[in-house]
Amino acid sequence: MKTTTEPINAQPGNTDFEVRSLDTICINESRKQHPWWYNFKYMAVGVLFGVVFVKAEVISWFRIQEMFRLQSFHMYGVIGTAVVVGIISVWLIKKFNIKTIHGEKIEFHPKKFNKGQIYGGLIFGLGWALTGACPGPLFAQVGTGALVVIVVLLSAIAGTWTYGYFREKLPH
Question: Mind telling me which residue stretches traverse the membrane in this protein (predicted)?
Answer without folding.
Answer: 40-62, 74-93, 118-140, 146-166
